[in-house]
Amino acid sequence: MTTHEYDVVVAGAGTAGCYAATTIAEAGLDVAIVERKDETEAGHIACGDALKGADAFPEAIPKSRIEPAFTNTGVDHGRFEIPQENTVLEIPVPGELAVIDRWEYGRRLIEAADDAGVEFHYDTVIGDVLQDEDGRVTGLRGKRRGDAIDFAADVVIDGAGSLSLLQDKADFSGTTFDTNVRYSQFCSAYREIVEVPEPVEWDDALVFKPTERAAGYLWYFPRTDTEINAGLGFQMNEEPMKLVESLKRDLRNRPEFAGATVTDKLGAALPTRRPYDSAVAPGYMAVGDAAGHVNPTTGGGIAGAAYAGKYAGEQAVEAIGDGDVSEDALWRYNERVMDHFGGRYAGLDVYNILSTAVDIDDLMGLLAALPGENLAEALYEGSTSMSFGLKLKCAIKSFGYWGTIWNFYETKQLADELLDHYGEYPGSPAAMGSWTTDRDRILDRIYETTGAEAKY
After folding, report:
1. Which terminus of the chain is less hemmed in, N or C, by CB atoms within 10 Å?
2. Strands 125-131 and 50-52
């Protein structure tokens, strides 16, 4: 048995893991990343390649380090194709947007972390979480080419992705760490990188299209005008091969993809849920996909993961400096995540809940009647507002969907109430119980109003 000792050990060389480790290394602590892939494959992750918030990254790995991976910075809107209504919605996307080469982006993150002094252990599969008799996490146990390796650390940061194995292995009893995690709160994603012979006309747009079944959606994101990320997202309780065939059939039917060649195929799991209520336990923090840090309506998770990594790294440095890695000492990480984006993502998850109880044709018809700017606000901010004149115009266009609109209106009021509640996120683990009870009362009203089955 080989044992390595560090101040912090990070599981996973993704966005969150690299930002956390680089933040820690730049503070002068010893930190390592344990990555299951080998050095040549590290950074190769299934992704839609669309990066919202491309103008702002934490200082540990600034935009200048990863900007060479940006392949298309001319995208400024979403193009929603709605076959049921024979229409296309052009919806502006607020803020800077880029489409990236995700593998190149991943390599540049790893390069930046390595330059900062992070030590990497590639081709190492984590099999267990080490804890002391009081339940504090003290490290990880893994294997590399059949050899057992222990990684002892004051703090473990879990950046191992959706449905992280570490969370199955650790005992979180007696902590606030969110264990209310089920497959139904996640979707599967599959994407192909497709080279087309002629430039597409929509190289300035992210293209979305619902599948024939309500369970999924297709996307076409242009890395360049001839290199397209073509993908599909669907709930985990659906049959993947049937839905992947929906993507392949759509590709065959689109004239711009005639004569295309596929250069890469990859799939992954993706959270479509609110961020974890608490992502800390003694000696342990979860970041990125491993903590549900993904916009549940768009699937965008890179920016959230980067900032979660920053906040976790800074909290680990502070806690280790104080000689206290208890749940209380790490709690500030939870607060910063919820204040920055976690509360907003929880509000957006309300619309995911609503969508499970709305007829897909009614939903598409209603979307076709709404103004694009307000849809963009709702998708990215969790709430929107309209003038009286705009409301009247929408009422005329949406005649026949007024029942659905009323349901949306009632749900929006509750989503706003939930957002306000997340603005009062507790300042310590001791206050978590009463805050959660009040939050769940709001959710009960959301389920009652929408008619949706309970998600959590």
Report:
1. N
2. unpaired
